[in-house]
Design brief:
With about 250 residues, the protein is an all-alpha fold. It has helices at about 30-60, 70-85, 85-100, 110-135, 140-145, 150-165, 170-180, 195-205, 210-235. It has nine helices and no strands. Helix 3 packs across helix 4. Pfam families: BPD_transp_1 (PF00528).
């Protein structure tokens, strides 16, 4: 078996090899297509991650409010709903079911619906990490914040959350890497990301090994970049000598 890496230099229309491997004058090579697909993958993943971090942090924090049982129940319901429904099913619901129930969603592009589905799905997982991080803090930190005159909001903002996020950076790293992996479900609603490129390119070129090796390499590069960025953040945010107590700082 011989490998033919020139497949990426072929024009997607006439299969002629382009000398520079990049199309000109409107022509597109498989390398152009793959890099464009990588851009879509990164875009879906980053936007979904931002949404997941915002919602997950909010929901996770609300689940630790000691004197708001109804809000805690709503937060728990959010986590149970979005964590226990498979992501592909959620994509299907967002793309096919919800637009029929809510006409305002009919004009929303599939790209945005995938970002919402992936962001909501991951927000449930991040909410659980945030809740665990807050509850891992010594109970006295909450009381100390209230004792100096902080409101509940200020206690979370200046005392609990900064410490909790330092604790949960390692699991957040895993969730960030997972969101790039899970972005592959976008192919189900025809978003031209890496998985869709790989499926179509290998059918057109019959060079599945080369195509999938290249796509896998791009996924590895993305995951490694995330790992290094999060490792840098963890190192910069680390508090020397901090020992996390088993007492619940946000628990009941």
């Amino acid at each position: 078996m011989s490998w033919d890496w020139q497949v990426f230099c072929q024009d997607t229309m006439d299969r002629e090899v382009v000398q520079s491997c990049f199309g000109k004058g409107g022509d597109i090579t498989y390398l152009d297509w793959m890099l464009s697909a990588w851009g879509w993958t990164v875009s879906v993943s980053v936007l979904a991650l931002v949404l997941a971090l915002v919602l997950g942090s909010l929901i996770g924090t609300l689940r630790t409010l000691q004197d708001r049982p109804m809000i805690v129940r709503l937060g728990n319901a959010w986590v149970e709903l979005f964590r226990n429904i498979p992501l592909l099913v959620q994509i299907f619901l967002w793309y096919h079911v919800l637009p029929s129930l809510f006409p305002v969603l009919r004009g929303v592009p599939g790209f945005a619906l995938v970002v919402l589905a992936l962001g909501f799905f991951t927000s449930a997982r991040i909410a659980e990490q945030v809740r665990s991080g807050i509850q891992a803090l010594p109970r006295g930190q909450r009381y100390a914040g209230l004792a100096v005159g902080f409101t509940t909001f200020q206690t979370y903002r200046y005392v609990l959350l900064p410490m909790a996020f330092r604790i949960i950076i390692p699991p957040l790293t895993s969730e960030t890497m997972n969101i790039f992996k899970n972005s592959s479900v976008a192919f189900a609603v025809s978003v031209a990301e890496l998985t869709m490129f790989a499926m179509q390119a290998q059918e057109e070129t019959s060079r599945g090994i080369e195509v999938y090796l290249a796509v896998t390499t791009l996924y590895i590069i993305s995951a490694f970049a995330i790992n290094r960025i999060m490792a840098f953040i963890e190192k910069r945010a680390r508090i020397p000598g901090m020992v996390v107590s088993g007492a619940a700082g946000g628990g009941h």
